[in-house]
Amino acid sequence: MADEVTLLDYWLSPFGMRVKIALAEKEVKYEYSEQNLMNRKSDLLLKMNPVYKKIPVLVHNGKPVCESLIILQYIDAVWKGKAPLLPSDPYERAQSMFWADFIDRKVHDISKKLWTTKGEELEAAKKDFFECLELLERELGEKPYFGGEALGYVDIALLPFSCGFYTYETIGDFSIEAQFPKIRAWVDRCLKKESVAKSLAEPAKVHGFILETRKGLGFD
Questions:
Q1: Could you read off the pLDDT of 28-42 as tens digits, one per residue?
Q2: What is the Cα–Cα distance from 24 to 79, expressed in whole angstroms?
Q3: Mean of the pLDDT values across residues 100-113?
Q4: Average pLDDT, whole number, for the chain?
Q5: Mean pLDDT of 190-216
């Protein structure tokens, strides 16, 4: 009996994009269920994630798995035959989990502040964002991917935020390519992979959405 896999998601969610990349890397076929988060949450979403009531949710043979990093670990454990996401070495595995957690704790919140603030708050967010990218660039080093020679867990955790780079640069008046060339080169390298390119939202679409949101917040 073939696996039944469904992803409950929203197009703009960086957390959902992570799951899309992982499934593409593993060549897992799945049904995509777009959730309208602007209105009432669907009965299916509430049933599959009654605790947090959030996307993404991976439903595998009727059983839900929630929280994107946990979903990535689940995908890696279930579909072992292709494209391992996490290292087998315990120490390297722990390091990958550390940096993915860093991205969740730091990059996500700071990225949001780059387009939901202005003035001194925006300048403070830029400073924090630069500090994060500096640390991540140092961790990347001369490796092609955070995972070494192949796309891995940390790469997948961070990549979705690159969809907003153009918007962050435009609003914050800075250049990631000029200030963090290794990070920019890493994004471009990853985008050459079909699993990444087809899973990430288009930067122009993200930009348009964020500009409309900023207008609603009275910033522009």
A1: 999 999 998 878 899
A2: 11
A3: 96
A4: 96
A5: 96
Q: Report in angstroms the alpha-carbon separations of 103 from 79, 96, 108, 159, 195.
A: 24, 11, 7, 10, 21
- Shared domain for 170 and 111, answered yes or no, is yes
Question: Domain ends where: 78, 106, 129?
Answer: 78
**What's the pLDDT score for residue 1?**
58
Residue 83 is given by DSSP the state: -
Cα 28 from Cα 36, distance rounded (Å): 24
Angstrom distances, CA of residue 140 to CA of 38, 99, 146, 166, 179 = 37, 11, 5, 21, 15
Look-up: residue for tokens 């400073």?
127
Say whether both 153 and 65 belong to one domain: no
Three-state SS for 92? helix
Q: Which residues of 80-89 are buried (b: 16+ CB within 10 A; e: fewer)?
A: eeebbbbbee
Tell me the H-state helices in the chain.
Answer: 14-26, 43-48, 68-78, 90-102, 108-116, 119-140, 153-158, 165-172, 176-179, 181-191, 194-197, 203-216
Domain residues for the domain of 179 are: 90-217
**Gyration radius from the chain CA atoms:** 18
For residues 54 and 1, is the Cβ–Cβ distance under 8 A? Answer: no
The CATH number covering residue 17 comes to 3.40.30.10
